[in-house]
């Protein structure tokens, strides 16, 4: 077979695979968007998988191909929200930056996003992420580490000298992530009123950073 013909066939296969992958992403995104719209309108508990499928124009079989349970859509929403906040923090590092200002701006954007959703949906999303973590620890599902919102920020700050060199940036980012999750849950439950989520959690993370920045104790 001529080389050109073989190359054309390989190109067609690659284009077909790319097209199918794009369609797959579109279908999954359509399901998530339909679920969020219904949950905002009718509430999480009252919305069924059949409702989501009708709104997205897909079959139940296709829904379960992407999401084994309705709750797994919540996990997808949580991951997408975290990735969006991480992108915001990363963008703020393109020029001169202040660590606390990046934290505050990132959490402000996250709060604006959360305000579009009913409190029930925010709380259910966070609780489902905790349940998923417990199932992963028990070996019931594969672990899927969530992206750390402030991972890039703290790595950069240590490298630039904005944070002391002894700071464990990865551990700091994991603990900050916990403060964000718990802060969002308490905020959605009304625990911070009239203060904003961003203000309270920025203060918490700033205090955490200050603790990590203290010089290590001398060896005994």
What would you say this structure looks like, in words?
By secondary structure, the chain is mainly alpha-helical. Helices cover 72% and strands 0% of the residues. The protein contains nine helices and no strands. It has helices at 3-42, 49-56, 60-66, 71-91, 99-114, 119-137, 151-160, 169-188, 197-213. It is globular and about 60 Å long.
What count of helical segments does DSSP give? 9
Main β-sheet: number of strands, strand sense, barrel status?
Answer: none
Radius of gyration: 21 Å
Distance from N terminus to C terminus (CA atoms, Å) equals 75 Å
What is the chain-wise order of helices and strands? HHHHHHHHH
* Shape designation: globular
**Percent of residues in beta strands:** under 5%
Q: In percent, how helical is the residue content?
A: over 70%
Question: Unreliable stretches, pLDDT < 50, 5 or more residues?
Answer: none
Instruction: Output the structural class.
Output: mainly alpha
Q: Care to count the β-strands?
A: 0
Mean pLDDT: 90
Question: What distinguishing features does this structure have?
Answer:
220 residues; mainly alpha; 9 helices
Topology readout:
Elements lengths: L2 H40 L6 H8 L3 H7 L4 H21 L7 H16 L4 H19 L13 H10 L8 H20 L8 H17 L7
Helix pairs in contact: 1-2, 4-5, 4-6, 5-9, 6-8, 7-8, 8-9
Describe what is shown at a glance.
By secondary structure, this protein is mainly alpha-helical. The protein is 72% helix and 0% strand.
């Amino acid at each position: 077979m001529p080389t050109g013909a073989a190359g054309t066939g390989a190109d067609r296969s690659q284009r077909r695979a790319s097209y199918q992958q794009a369609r797959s992403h579109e279908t999954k995104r359509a399901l998530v968007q339909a679920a969020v719209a219904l949950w905002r309108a009718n509430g999480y508990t009252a919305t069924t998988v059949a409702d989501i499928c009708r709104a997205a124009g897909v079959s139940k079989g296709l829904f379960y191909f992407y999401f084994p349970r309705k709750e797994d859509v919540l996990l997808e929403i949580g991951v997408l929200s975290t990735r969006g906040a991480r992108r915001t923090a990363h963008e703020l590092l393109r020029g001169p930056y202040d660590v606390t200002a990046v934290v505050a701006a990132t959490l402000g954007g996250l709060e604006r996003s959360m305000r579009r959703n009913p409190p029930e949906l925010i709380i259910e999303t966070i609780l489902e992420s905790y349940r998923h973590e417990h199932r992963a620890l028990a070996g019931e599902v594969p672990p899927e580490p969530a992206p750390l919102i402030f991972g890039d920020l703290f790595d950069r700050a240590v490298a630039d000298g904005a944070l002391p060199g002894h700071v464990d940036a990865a551990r700091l980012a994991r603990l900050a992530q916990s403060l964000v999750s718990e802060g969002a849950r308490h905020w959605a439950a009304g625990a911070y009123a009239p203060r904003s989520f961003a203000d309270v959690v920025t203060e918490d993370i700033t205090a955490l950073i200050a603790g990590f920045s203290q010089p290590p104790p001398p060896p005994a």
